[in-house]
Amino acid sequence: MSKIKIIPCSGIGKAFGLMTREAVFQVTNKLNPKEAETACLAHIITGDAEGRDKVAGQRCITVDGCPKLCAAKSVEFEGGIVKQQFRVIDEMKNHKGVNPGTGTALSEDGWIIVDELAEKISAKVTELVEEGKNNA
């Protein structure tokens, strides 16, 4: 069975974008490395064949920083099956008034939010893996 694809938004230079990438790296490198992998949104958006092939027809989780949902929309456009969308702005609602840091460095509070988001993504990966076993 193929790994669950987790695609963060690009959000370069923005704190919420950095948070998406850090949360995804925690899941793919530490929490669920055997069950999940990431793909580069830039390759997907630019129509790179390898990027498209990586998500087309695959179970995907997208993580966006802002309401524009660039990752979710792009993955769906290229044929990815988006099983769950996460947004950093939704996580920030649970931490009103907190400064998460900058586009290049997260604050201690920013890392706490990233850890919480990574746990939620990891739980969804585990759920999708179990779902896949039951449907096999």
What does this structure look like?
The chain is of the alpha/beta class and 136 residues long. It has helices at 15-31, 41-45, 49-55, 70-77, 88-92, 108-135, and strands at residues 4-8, 36-38, 59-64, 81-87. The chain starts with a strand and ends with a helix. It is built from six helices and four strands, in the order E-H-E-H-H-E-H-E-H-H. The protein has a four-stranded parallel sheet, sandwiched between helices.
Radius of gyration: 14 Å
Count the E strands: 4
Share of residues in helices:
40-55%
Supply the helix-strand structural class: alpha/beta
Shape: globular
Distance between the termini: 9 Å
DSSP strand (E) fraction? Answer: 15-25%
Helix count equals 6
Q: Give the helices and strands as they follow along the chain.
A: EHEHHEHEHH
Q: Could you give a short account of the major beta sheet?
A: 4 strands, parallel
Give a quick summary of the entry.
With 136 residues, the protein is an alpha/beta fold. It is built from six helices and four strands, in the order E-H-E-H-H-E-H-E-H-H.
